[in-house]
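Reopening this one. Same input as before:
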Amino acid sequence: MMLQGHFVSALLTESYREEGGAAYSLWAYLRGVTAPVFFTVTGFIFTYLLFKKYERGWSNLRVKKGIKRSGLLMLIGYVLQIRFGRLMEGSINASFDIVHVLQCLGLSMLLIIVLYLAAHKFNKYLFQILLGSITVLLFLSNGTVNQWECGLLPEWLSNYITRENGSVFTMVPWFGFATAGACLSGFFHSHLNKQGFYTKAFLITLSIGILLIFQSYEFIRDMGILTDNHFLQSAIDDSYLFARLGVVFVIFAIFITLRNILNHKVILDIGQNTLTIYILHAMVLYGSITGHGQAHIIKYGEWYLCIVNSLVGLYQKGDGKGVDHIRLKYNMGHHLKPHCKF
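Same output, byte for byte:
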């Protein structure tokens, strides 16, 4: 989902981006679901492993592994944003400290560990309620938090809260998707070995998903009117987050029905190497570290072509044969129509 979404978005020519087209609209909507699925699944898997040794607290092996993994994700996230060409010149690019998916995901895992350590001495159901409550609170407060001014905080820290400096994945609301997955993992851990579990899990996740998709807006609106609560009334515009979570739950239901296929060795091997795949795709497509990726080449492709055509034209003395050859070879891959003439 991530790879096709990013590559298609970056490389699809403008003539195919039909905003009113059914196919493009469906693809665009599903692309918007990719990150919620990614965060929810990560929270689910990571917390499910914590639940296996729930009472152990700090001695739970997954705690120390999780801390290391969180730190690694955040470190890689920042490294991918460094432009080493600028670094070699003695400066660093201004976008270095914005928060993207890896930093947000790493901090989300770290916060789940903190919550687990605070709650492991209590009943695991209380931990689940805490996780679910955090999801609801973060979703409802998304609009309010976006209006905060974080001028007193260091910029690198404020980037986890506000999008003003270019951050894409702030903790509100994205941590909410991770805690939603974490909450759901407790249900799976407690009932996995019970007879008929997968049928019940399918029906429950599908039902919750449909309710969230079609009733979130109405529920928040009605509760705001009923209680005359300004906070709920201001959160109506954030009901789409609950709807997105509903889509994630529906996808979970699909995963349950396809669990035998998803347990195939090839798919499991891909799942175990998602970080490597992400790093490679970020470097190839967006030019992470190098600053030169396919997305940039496509965006400025006409300028590259004009420069190449000019150089070739000098050697061909204007006969155009070399220019036409390069134009044809370049356009076959990218469907660009250069506007420079010689």
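So the earlier flakiness isn't reproducible anymore. For the record, The first helix runs from residue 2 to 11.
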